[in-house]
Amino acid sequence: MVSPLAIAVATIVGVVISGTYYAVVTLPEPADGVRQPPTAAVQGAVELGRSAATALLVAWLAGEAGRASLVDGAVLGAALWVLPVVLLVGSVVHEGTPVRAAVVHAGDWLLKLVAVGAVVASLAR
């Protein structure tokens, strides 16, 4: 069973990590004609949803894999990082996303997945 406490804590951790990460790491300026990012409120709401979905999925996978320690969860999160990296490489190759932007987003996903994995696995007991 997925612990609601683990999901809630991991969701908050994910939001804090992404918020802090993007406050510190700057993305390249968008090219002319590229849509500008939405307001901070919309970004926050979207990040809350992304972090909750990530926490739910990682918690479920950790439970199915029998991962019940901080280190096990962190390793699971690091292994899952392959998925966003594959998607980001596709966006670089097929959509012309700047490599620097993809690298910045990959860094966010790595930190978030490792932390979320560690939280949900360690609180799942």
Topology of this protein?
Elements: H1 4-24, H2 40-65, H3 70-80, H4 82-95, H5 99-123
Helix pairs in contact: 1-2, 1-5, 2-5, 3-5, 4-5
The largest pleated sheet is described as: none
Series of H and E elements:
HHHHH
Instruction: Calculate the mean pLDDT score and round it.
Output: 91
Give a count of the beta strands, DSSP E runs of length 2 or more: 0
- State the helix count: 5
| Low-confidence regions | none
Instruction: Estimate the global geometry from the Cα principal axes.
Output: globular
Radius of gyration: 15 Å
Distance between the termini: 10 Å
> How much beta, percentage-wise?
under 5%
In short:
The protein is mostly helical. It is 78% helix and 0% strand.
What do these coordinates show?
78% of the residues lie in helices and 0% in strands. α1 (4-24) crosses α2 (40-65) and α1 runs antiparallel to α5. The protein has 125 residues and is mainly alpha-helical. The model has no long low-confidence stretch (mean pLDDT 91).
Question: Tags for this entry?
Answer:
single chain, 125 residues, 78% helix, 5 helices, globular, mainly alpha
